[in-house]
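Hey,

The postdoc asked me to send both predictions to you directly instead of through the lab channel. I've kept everything plain text so nothing gets mangled by the mail client. Protein one:
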Amino acid sequence: MVVERVASSLAALMAAGWCTAFAVPASAQAIVVAPTAPPPPQVETVPPPPASVDVWHPGHWAWTGANWAWMPGQYVASPAPQATWIPGHWEQQETGGYIWVDGHWSG
């Protein structure tokens, strides 16, 4: 959730011209651990895409540190015509709890 907020804030700053580039190594991403499984996904009505290269990223549950919050789906521009979006998901750990595995592009 924190990583998503930071990314959203940086995107807004870039759009406003306040910064031009920002990179975070994958190893620097925050690890989110939830004590319980997320609720079932909410049903989303997927609107028509705004452009032919946009891909729907489905919504998901995010752990806030105290409870679950729904993060609605959104369209995102594909980095390449053949790219496929692999959605993020919560993965149960043997030691207990659930860890968020970020979505990523494949192809």
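Protein two:
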Amino acid sequence: MSRVFLGISAATALIVMAGAAFAADQGMGNSSPLVYKLNAIGDSGQSGTVTLTPSTTDGKPSTTVVIAVTGEPTGAIEPAHIHSTSCPGTLTSVVYGLTSVVDGKSTTVVPAPIDTFASGFSVNIHKSKDEIKTYIACGNLKS
């Protein structure tokens, strides 16, 4: 009887370990938020943080992106994006559009696991929709 119990316990342990490995492989292994600095570009005077937190949307891994900026002009609506390139280089290749920064804040759920953004990506904030080529803050996402 005890051999049967030990066999069941060992099988259960293997299933739990396999589930943890699957979760890590799907970008769900890291449950801690990652915080990165947003640096002002030029004389914008705007800086802050971008926080990435693993989440789940419709059963699939996703990432909640929260931007907090200080120094934003009153009434400004500033578009934000995740780029597949780093600051301060040429910020082409928008990978994900983010909710515009309003009153210094933006929150967006991106349909990708947090591990997607381990290196080489950046978050960029633009002055306005009309002045989309004017960058006011940027932060590199790296592990």
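Summary for protein two, as requested: The chain is about 15% helix and 45% strand.

Thanks,
C.
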